[in-house]
Design brief:
With 323 residues, this protein is an alpha/beta fold. It has 15 helices and eight strands. The strands form two sheets. It has a six-stranded parallel β-sheet, with helices on both faces. It has a two-stranded parallel sheet with strand order 4-5. Strand 6, helix 12 and strand 7 form a beta-alpha-beta unit.
Length: 323
Amino acid sequence: MTSSQILQNLNPAQNDAVIHRGGPMLVVAGAGSGKTRVLTHRIAHLIEQDNVNPFQILAITFTNKAAQEMKDRVAALVGPVAENMWVSTFHSACVRMLRRDAEQLGYPRAFSIYDQADAVRLTGYVIRDLGLDTKKFVARSIHAQISNLKNELVESQSALDNAASIFERKIAEIYSEYQRRLRVAGAMDFDDLLTVTVELFRNHSNTLAHYQERFQHVLVDEYQDTNPAQNEIVLKLGDRHRNVFVVGDSDQSVYAFRGADIRNILDFEKAFPDTGIVVLDQNYRSTQTILDAANSVIANNYGRKPKDLWTDKSAGDKIVLYR
């Protein structure tokens, strides 16, 4: 596919993002601005015009459905070579790496993965065996707190050392025993897939170097929804070649309750001071009346990357408030 075909029907901002010559790039993508098109055409441009081996591309998104859609769209542009890329969720990518290298941390290569139900059940067993009040220490709630600690890269001993109350101390004790039992079982929960990968990269430089060389281009969708563990994985993988291409929108950060940290996108330029920035502010989904209202409301939020969405559609109907 020619460059003109890849760039066909892109607006100027989308075009600038797709043809970026390399190095770190932050694409601030407003709602309905065509960010998936930018990501897929960026990958196609890397393969077809920059002669990047698809084997050296890692593209990350947050759902299996989105990952499959991205791979299908890239395949439609570049053909079967798209199969050589890694296009996956964070957790799926980490599983593939850990199946190869978790033995370096004492895990069996065929480690088990506890799903949410398994993890909550194990938490309940720990609470029971520690003789704690199961009405005060509800397994699902306690596991959610353990999950938050893991996503913030807080280990059980650190949680214990920094406990500010008896209740927090008990949570740390549950966390410690929960983690011990996972290790004895040769298992990880979903959060461990991230945190153990971080541990692997921190403590085994040769393994990190292997993946840094393998993935010379790292692209991440919905970057505003990354948690500290996911952010560290991205930064470590991209530290050698620095071809880190992230797409996100601080105005659409809605997963703080799941550990997402908006500072990851707001501080991306601190990690990579030479970051190129492209703002996708043309909206293809809404009328200008709706966009004006949205711009007016979100302008009151100072913790954001500024942009004003616009469209070439008509103004549309007035907004009606029903009481």
